[in-house]
Structure formats: structure tokens, C-alpha cells
Amino acid sequence: MIPITRPALPPLTEYVALLERVWSSRMLSNFAEYASALEALAADYLGANCVLTVSSGDVALILSLRALQLPPKSRVLVPSFTFNSTVNAILWNDLTPVFVDIDPENLNIDPADVARRVEGVGAVLATHVFGNPAPVGELARLAGGVGARLVFDAAHGYGSIRQGKHVGQFGDAEVFSLSGTKPVTSAEGGLLATSNAELADRFRYLRAYGFQHDYNSRYIGLNGKLSELHAALGLLTMTRIEDALAARRLHVDHYMSCLASVPGVTFQRVSADDRSTYKDFAVLFANGEQRYLAEAALTAAQVQTKRYFRPCHQMEAYRQYSHRSLPVTEDVYRRILCLPLYEDLEPDQVESICEIIQAAVGLAVISERGRSHTSRRPVTAGQVAALSRRR
Q: What residues does 303 pair with on adjacent strands?
């Protein structure tokens, strides 16, 4: 089976060497040596004034919104095309999500839709989708124009670059995930990057029960500490981020080259002066039938894929906040499929995946033509799988 993703891990001996220091010091947590080193390494790489570690990206996002001290029920603009934890962070803070649409090409939040709804909101929470930097300048102008705060869910964005600047330098705060699906991983963990000293100070309290050294809670916090075991792994993967991104980009270029001649297939647009981490590699098909047949054929060939992201405004948990259709988001979801992408993916695996997709799209085109001229039934997933095996 070819999985959708697989973490690149350092040699076990290197990890064990770091763990020996943990065993010697008996400091398992509490922002000790490795967590502090991870913060310093990330701050230097990102060019951020302050980077703080926490136990997960979810915790980082929840606490970053908490640190803004927005009034209860404040409206927060958020793309529906995002992982659901982005929306959960809003609701955990007793804030109100307002779903907005996305750009059909870069798949990030659409500034035009933000402009139509930004009046009276407390914050804008945008996602760097699949590591593709969001339109940070336009969003800063729109949020600043109405006195709203600006936060970025940069879960996919460690290593992304927007017009020469690393993601991590924008908005009031940017939040990164270090989970096992990310190019930099500590197994589980997260980072807050901010240039706002007041926000950073509150965040330090919030991530440690609400107090610092005197056990007197100034805020209602929680336990967001990153353990030394996780921080040690994060240090080893963080030092090789550029190698990781270079490997991913080679696979992306190979995919794009192999699929370039497939009718109807397009890709997420990344601006020439930006860099995406390609945490996920998304293919957009001409229509839902092509996507379905490609997905079915790949599944039959034991290739794992993902329909990523399911629109949040269509999820049961958020239905009460869904007050209108989002045509671009809904159309993209009908046509999108994320393909396997990880560092040690083999070139011949990429080629096999592309051959299966080419066969599936070819049969979809034949099926469409047949339906337009005869009463022929649609091509089935089984036919696609059989054809791909013959290839």
C-alpha cells in the first residue's frame, strides 16, 4: 500500500542520544532544555520576534485566540475550506465563526469575500492551505481597516515563504503544528509565532495553567506544556527542514509533469514569488465524476488518497453557523483529491499513480461522450481498476 503520508524520522541513535540527557536530568517537561532550544531554533529560522512551544497546534490556536481577549460571541471570519480544528478553536473561546469562501485557484481565503463581511468582526482567522501562503497583505489591510485582529492557522506552513518573508512573521499571531503529518514533527506539538509582546506574555501564562512561578493564576489557563521527549524529536526534524521541503518539491514537480497532459486536471496555484511546503499535494479534476473514478481506481490499487478539506460549513457540528452557500468551496470539494506525498516516496510510485489517474480520466471522458450520444451507462470504478492493472 502507498500511504497518503509518512513521517521522515531521524536515525533512532540520534534520538536516543538526546533522550539520555533527559534521563540524566529527570526534567521531562516544564519548558526545559529541549523545549527552550526548539523555541530558539524556530525563532531564528522564521525570523519571528517570539516563538513559544505548546503540546499541539490545536492548543496553540485556542490559546492564541484566548490571548487576544475578544469579547464573548465576537464574530470571527474563517474559511470553511480548512481543517475543522480551525473552527473548533473559535468555538472553544465562545466566539462565533462566520464562514467565507476561497479563491478557486490558490484555495486560500478570498479577500473579496472577506471585504464583504469584515465590518463589525473581532478577528480574521485565515489558513495557509496545504502550506500555500495566504494573501497576508490584503488581509492585514482589511482587518486593520475595521480594527479586527488577524491570526493565521499556519499548521501546514513551517517553511512557507510569502514574497521573501517566512510565514510566521505576519498578523497578530501565526500557529504551527508539529504533528506526525507535517514536514517538521515532534510527534505531537505546536508553536506560536508572534511579534506582539503583550499577546506573547499572556500566552506564556495561558499555556501553563494561568500562572508562572508564584502559583497565582492571572488567567484561566490550561496545561499546554510540550514534553522534553517531544521537543527532542522536534529539534532533530527541524534542523533538516530545507532538505525535507526540497524532497517534497521534487515529487510535486514529478507529479505535475506526469499529469500535465491529462485533460481537465489542474493544481493549486502557488505564486511565483511564494513558496509552499506542499504539506499536501492537491489535484483538481474537471468534475466530480473524474474525481470519483480516479479515487476509486487508486483505492483499488491500494493507493491512499484524501478528499481534503471537507467544507466545515457542511459539517453537522457547525450547521447552526452555516447561513449561506459557499459556491467556490463547494465546487472545489467536489473536484479535489490529495495524493500521496512524503520524502521517501519513490519516483516510480509517482508514475504509477499518475498512470492510474490518466486511465481513470480517459474512461471518464469516454463515459461523458457516450452519455451525450447514446444511452450508454457510466464507466464503473471496477472498469478503471481493470484498465489500470493492464497498464
A: 2
